[in-house]
Write a structure and sequence with these properties.
about 35% strand, about 25% helix, alpha+beta, 5-stranded mixed beta sheet
Length: about 180
């Protein structure tokens, strides 16, 4: 079974020794994990190297928490946030429209189990709905298809050394519900 980040990001098995090197769309922002506890955003770069991190002692939950930190930062730095009182079809339509304005279509929607029913009603067969307990309860993430969002580079099949990053932050929109 694939993790949330493996479904939302392009899994890129780079040859050893190799680097996870990616071009950034003009005017976009890259948000990557520099360590399991540090997420940084980079603006005005033509390319970015997503570093391999040592996950030897990490659990799947640890990795997913880092992935959600990356999504939060990516939507924050580009102001790709839709504020609402509750999740509605209209709210999710606005998030999808923000992606469309950046020339992307909606490919993946990530939500907490508490919001699954409302979000499932909106999703069509075209979007992959991912329900995950590590997604904050007051957020739904609306993403472009994985190859346009970012990458999870790893040397060969070694999951204990892999990177994680949103290469095009414009491909991530957060729907934030006021608490």
């Amino acid at each position: 079974m694939h993790t949330v980040y493996e479904r939302a990001l392009l899994v890129d098995e780079v040859p050893q020794p190799g680097l996870g090197r990616y071009e950034i769309d003009r005017g976009s922002v890259a948000t990557i994990a520099m360590s399991p506890t540090e997420v940084r955003s980079y603006r005005d770069n033509e390319e970015i190297i997503v570093p391999f991190l040592d996950w030897e002692e990490a659990t799947v939950e640890d990795k997913e928490k880092v992935f959600f930190d990356i999504l939060a930062k990516a939507s924050e730095v580009t102001l790709s946030i839709v504020h609402a009182e509750v999740f509605t079809n209209d709210t999710l339509d606005k998030a999808s429209a923000m992606l469309n304005n950046s020339a992307y279509v909606t490919g993946v929607v990530i939500t907490h189990p508490d919001n699954e029913a409302a979000v499932r009603e909106w999703c069509s067969d075209k979007e992959e709905l991912i329900v995950n307990e590590w997604c904050p309860t007051n957020v739904v993430y609306v993403l472009a298809p994985a190859p346009f969002v970012g990458a999870c580079p790893r040397p060969g099949f070694d999951k204990s050394r892999e990177g994680m990053g949103v290469i095009n932050s414009d491909a991530v929109v957060a729907v934030l519900i006021k608490a």
